[in-house]
Write a structure and sequence with these properties.
Elements (H helix, E strand, L loop, with lengths): L1 H10 L7 H9 L3 H11 L20 E8 L3 H9 L3 E6 L10 E7 L2 H12 L4 E6 L11
Antiparallel strand pairs: 1-3, 1-4, 2-3
Helix pairs in contact: 1-3, 2-3
């Protein structure tokens, strides 16, 4: 039974309202028993269990990396609080690339991006948008 659970977890949890309940049903065991078994594997068989979202599958077709040149903390707060932004970093600027704030944002529709940009323009900051063309790797550190 433990091998079956390991295989299912390694394959990925089902995308349903009750992934653990659905896994338990398919294994003919109680949901509580499944969760206890999985918890016992974390740290031994698995480093940890986490969610990884495929933005395209849930409708986010427009992905942009924003490079912003600003010393205004308000713009950074505005961007970092946006529901569309998943990553925000402040970095030291370089002579050749003078941007110091970077953010990755995801939008379902072009109109959502345009609305976000019209709000961003009120801060009078210099910025560049780099649209994702192709995703080569999305992973984690060892």
């Amino acid at each position: 039974m433990m091998d079956e659970i390991k295989k299912m977890v390694a394959k990925g949890l089902p995308i349903t309202r009750d992934p653990y309940g659905d896994m338990a049903k398919s294994l003919n065991i109680d949901k509580k028993e499944l969760i206890e078994s999985i918890n016992g594997m974390v740290g031994k068989d698995f480093e940890k269990i986490r969610a990884e979202i495929n933005y395209e599958k849930i409708g986010y077709k427009i992905n942009v990396l924003m490079a912003i040149r600003s010393q205004n903390d308000e713009i950074c707060q505005f961007i970092s609080k946006s529901k569309n932004v998943t990553h925000c970093y402040e970095r030291y600027p370089d002579e050749k690339f003078r941007y110091n704030f970077f953010a990755m944002a995801h939008f379902r529709k072009k109109e959502e991006l345009e609305k976000f940009l019209s709000e961003l323009k009120t801060f009078n900051a210099e910025y560049e948008l780099l649209r994702t063309i192709k995703k080569f790797k999305r992973g984690r550190l060892p």
